[in-house]
């Protein structure tokens, strides 16, 4: 999964002016948000998260951050507990479907959730139990 996600991100995400043709990722909204993203990623990495891709500011502009994938994310990390509002995918492992639902639903905000499975019945079952503003399954 991680390798396919990375390949898709590398192929599809183009940083630049959000109004420019062909750009799919513009800058963060302001310096405060940029600093928050930098801090949350740095804190997670210091606590043991592994950077698969990105994980640093982008040279494109002072408000761009590299598309990032972090693995080995744990529930004590700020980016696990709070929405980052930046180009960061945080991946945490789980053992059972119920554990995944418990993790996903233990969130104060939960603007969106996504669930991926080859089992269509599982997608429907999990999708109905996700407590989120919007959701998607594949």
Structural category? alpha/beta
Overall pLDDT metric: 90
Low-confidence stretches: none
Total strand segments: 5
Which sheet architecture does the biggest sheet show? Answer: 3 strands, mixed
Give the N-to-C terminal Cα separation: 13 Å
Oligomer: single chain
**Lateral arrangement of strands in the main beta sheet:** 1-2-3
Helix percentage range: 25-40%
The SSE string, one letter per element, is HHEEHEHEHE
> Which band does the percent of strand residues land in?
5-15%
List the total number of helices.
Answer: 5
Radius of gyration: 16 Å
Report on the architecture of this protein.
By secondary structure, the protein is of the alpha/beta class. The chain is 36% helix and 14% strand. It is built from five helices and five strands. The protein has helices at 2-12, 31-46, 78-81, 97-105, 120-129; strands at 50-53, 68-71, 88-90, 112-115, 134-137. It has a three-stranded mixed β-sheet with strand order 1-2-3, with helices on one face. Helix 5 (120-129) links the parallel strand 4 (112-115) and strand 5 (134-137). The chain is globular. It starts with a helix and ends with a strand. The mean pLDDT is 90.
